[in-house]
Design brief:
The structure is a homodimer of 544-residue chains. In chain A, the strands form three sheets. Chain A has a nine-stranded mixed sheet, sandwiched between helices. Chain A has two domains: 15-43 and 59-208 and 424-480, Rossmann fold; 210-418 and 497-542, Phosphofructokinase domain (Rossmann fold). The first copy, chain A, is globular, with a radius of gyration of 25 Å. In chain A, 41% of the residues lie in helices and 15% in strands. Chain A has helices at residues 4-10, 76-90, 104-107, 116-119, 141-153, 165-180, 209-230, 246-255, 263-268, 273-289, 308-321, 326-331, 336-343, 349-357, 360-368, 383-400, 426-444, 498-506, 508-511, 528-531, 536-542; strands spanning 26-30, 49-53, 63-68, 95-99, 111-114, 158-163, 186-191, 234-239, 259-260, 295-300, 410-415, 450-455, 465-470, 475-480, 483-488. The two termini of chain A are 47 Å apart. In chain A, α2 crosses α17 (426-444). Chain A has 544 residues and is an alpha/beta fold. The longest helix of chain A is centred in the middle third of the chain and has 22 residues, at 209-230. In chain A, α6 (165-180) links the parallel β6 (158-163) and β7 (186-191). At the A-B interface, α1, α7, β11 and α20 of A face α1, α8, β11 and α20 of B.
């Protein structure tokens, strides 16, 4: 059942730059820059494309497939709607196919033809439920072969892969594979991820980040207002972002919490877990001096994995626990407390100190709750609860030493899933619709191995630049699991970039003074600066 | 710092019925009904008042105090703004005083004069931070005496208490006390609580419920959309509502989750903890039959306390653990696991069965983590995590018996604090502003011991009815902590009422079919039915 707001959003027509309005007249200019790569013999001569206007001959009907890959991001449905509308504007006999349940749908040939009727209730809506998504990766030769069989059977002119860094890496290899096997199917990538870590000189921003951050910022702003009203609690708010802290940074810029942990900064400073706990406790003690026993602290979910000594501990634990090791075998039948007792003397000094800092229950969890490869699952540790608890210990010790006089009551909160499938903001609705239209045009022009790149996004939609970048230009070698792998880089928060610089300059003023800002819920109507706003970090990056 | 939306909301002028527009012309008609009470000799002859229009002589300047009591509810600042504007419309020399930090501010005579300058950045804003709130109760003779001294010192014509059932009970006794001591200070109550349990024949709805439920419903709708997109998780969403389940019911009506626990129903059916776990597991198993290993389950935070056998367990544990008992003394020095072992054989059969169902960690928590009176703290148990874990055990057993074939992955979520201090919805902004204006008018007319009662709320503001009800008419005797006490009743969800009836008729259709509705974020602009909506349960109650 659709809510009144959902119905109103169905009626919305996304805004777009002029060039995407008449897709029949679009053409692409090749840029100068070449970036040859031995990995991609077929693709390597492709150049950056810029859309311009021409009057090409009427297009043939096209057959295009689309797949949503990985975690949900608001706007995914609009990518599909944009593709559909552009394909039909190009030729009313074009057909669009959706692969069901993510890339696995390509391998299993699970597909549905998408018609106007299917799309009617998904325009400008959240979620990925029209065709679902999945985390299967298409990266082996066998999977490439399967994919080829599927696109051949469907006689596809194009396959559009909506995904993050890994999915687009795979899209690039798949495009090369298709070319090498003389397939006509073009492969186009669309940059999706709320984490904003698919970002580089060609990709200004992945879609979904704006909406997700605005949902989280609504939440954080409300919590901060509650904190300053009740004056009772420290809220440790965990945010999404396992590998990077873009979300936490954007939310901090929008809401001005008292402290925000940025994983990249902790890593750059080489901070230990004790350092992080000391920093938070210093904040709490400084506020207590002013009579303030409340506050808001933002914690990216992956924060623990940026902490140097925790990384050492994890690698020692993994070695000790390996079922092939004598220790692993010895511990196998033990009870959790016995495992803890057994493991401690076998850790190095440094790792032992870190392990002994952890609450008992976390120690046991680390030793017992392992992944299918036998590795400890740091990601299962609820970082906001861990930090909250460690601060409790630290503050209790400071109290004994007379260094802290406050009353510490903390509440752990996780703001995550509710941002991934929200109704897309006006910006994400517009942006995604344009990405979809552009993807369709690239297929129509038989471009393959490209990512849709729309830039100048801080400006109104009418001023956006419409380009496409060869995927292989983003690929470089990187160590993953001890091996060199050709991948699109996951962009960390740039500690030298404008958004972080601005944050670093302002944050001291937010520590003890309460400068909370309450952005409120996403608006779809009303003044442009409210309804059609942009991420603060995007605007800052654009400033010269 | 104010966000653009906050700034836009500052400009908003609340809507009101005509009669509240010209407060100088308002007068009050006494109704027929009398409801004498020996508890309130002075107040007992007061009658229900209905506002009408007259041309009374120009009002003298008034001096009025206001206090916010208990948990935050969106709209509190607008009550104060409504009071201020009405007082100044009545006479520009009137003065408004805010007591700092809740009723404790009256006792400690902590007060600030509120001026236009103070209010300028709080109009239509969330939170209670203008003057803060607190949970101190004014209920002893000594506290009444202190309060009298404060209002006399300030020479107040009126004291407006914005609070829930308990605060308004206390307001009634305070009004009687002031009358008995010949104080001129009128006491007026304003119905506040997001829980909506301050509700009766005179009070259609407390303020804050609409906004809070819309914030929670945005959250739940987003989570449901995520659930149906990823198809991986059961979300156990805990909602506020310790004593009643109005919030869960309203959110269920707005979002159509697969299962919603209603405390009052569990109590009426006399369900045990095992029954509740069985019901949830039945849902999960039925959905697994359809290939659906995901879903959304709403859990009011106080749910465990509605479960019959848990109540028995708690009372037995409290008796055993009392420090005055020999068992209490014996257990004092024991380690948590030893306490658990000690306590089990001393429980009755029924309570033992319930205790043994609980995960080990919860058993220890119950025995170790007690309140200042030595009672077990059921409220510290995270009910959503407990139920999630008990369902895991139950489903594992069903799997062994071949009765369940699904894959169970559950995520606990708490949606609570972010709803209490949100920007008030248009409805709550309007309603609260009107409540404040009405409170000021009642003081101007020297009415005391009244609650502001605005009704016909499902209709546009222009059609609202403006009345005032003697607080003592709502007071009855009720057993609390084993004693008869005169209180305003906390209204439970009425299982015979229209909202629950509607829910009960619809919910089976939401179990296995996914009928999730995504209300989206609160809108302040746009179509009336979206921006100026009403709670569904309020609309249903109004239907004949």
């Amino acid at each position: 059942m659709l809510s009144p707001l959902q119905k109103a959003r169905l009626e919305y027509t996304p805004k777009m730059p002029k060039i995407l309005q008449n897709v029949a007249a679009i053409c692409f200019q090749e840029g100068q820059r070449v970036c040859a790569s031995e990995l991609f013999p077929k693709l390597s001569s492709s150049r950056v494309l810029t859309a311009s206007t021409d009057s090409p001959p009427p297009a043939q009907p096209l057959r295009v497939g689309v797949v949503l890959s990985g975690g949900q991001a608001p706007g995914g449905h609009n990518v599909i709607c944009g593709m559909y509308d552009a394909l039909h504007a190009l030729n009313p006999h074009s057909r669009l196919f959706g692969f069901i349940g993510g890339p696995g749908g390509i391998l299993k040939d699970k597909v549905v033809e998408l018609t106007e009727e299917h799309l009617a209730s998904f325009r400008n809506q959240g979620g990925f439920d029209l065709i679902g998504s999945g985390r299967t990766k298409i990266e082996t030769q066998e999977q490439f072969q399967k994919s080829l069989e599927t696109v051949e059977r469907l006689n596809l002119d194009g396959l559009v892969i909506v995904g993050g860094d890994d999915s687009n890496t795979n899209a690039c290899f798949l495009a090369e594979y298709f070319l090498q096997h003389n397939s006509k199917t073009c492969v186009i990538g669309v940059p999706k991820t709320i984490d904003a870590d698919l970002q580089n000189e060609f990709v200004e921003l992945s879609f979904g980040f704006d909406t997700a951050c605005r949902v989280y910022s609504e939440f954080i702003g409300n919590i901060a207002r509650d904190a300053i009203s009740a004056k009772k609690y420290y809220f440790f708010i965990k945010l999404m972002g396992r590998s990077t802290s873009h979300i936490a940074l954007e939310c901090a810029l929008a809401t001005h919490p008292n402290l925000t942990l940025i994983g990249e900064e902790i890593q750059a400073k080489g901070q230990s877990l004790a350092d992080v706990v000391r920093d938070i406790s210093d904040l709490i003690a400084a506020r207590a001096e002013e009579g303030k026993d409340y506050g808001v602290i933002l914690v990216p979910e992956g924060i623990i994995e940026f902490v140097g000594d925790v990384k050492i501990l994890i690698s020692e634990l993994n070695a000790l626990l390996a079922s092939t090791s004598k220790h692993g075998a010895a511990m196998e039948p033990m009870s959790p407390p016995d495992k803890v007792r057994y493991v401690i003397p076998h850790l190095g000094d440094h790792a032992r100190g870190t392990f002994e800092m952890l609450p008992h229950i976390i120690q046991e969890q680390l030793l017992c709750d392992r992944d299918p490869h036998g590795n400890v699952q740091m990601s299962k540790i609820e970082s906001e609860r861990l930090l909250m608890e460690l601060c409790r210990q630290e503050l209790a010790e400071r109290k004994l030493r007379g260094e802290y006089k406050g009353r510490y009551a903390a509440v752990p909160i996780f703001s995550g899933y509710e941002g991934r499938s929200s109704l897309p903001s006006v910006f994400d609705a517009d942006y995604c619709y344009c990405l979809g239209r552009l993807a369709a045009c690239l297929v129509a022009h038989k471009k393959t191995g490209y990512m849709t790149s729309i830039s100048n996004l801080a400006k109104p939609a009418s001023e956006w630049s419409v380009c496409a970048t060869p995927l292989h230009m983003m690929i470089h070698f990187e160590e993953r699991d001890g091996q060199q792998k050709a991948v699109i880089r996951k962009a960390p928060c740039d500690l030298g970039g404008k958004p972080f610089e601005y944050f670093a300059a302002e944050r001291d003023g937010w520590r003890v003074e309460d400068c909370y800002c309450q952005p409120g819920p996403i608006q779809f109507f009303g003044p442009t600066e409210i309804a059609d706003s942009r991420p603060i970090s995007l605007k800052l990056r654009g400033e010269k």
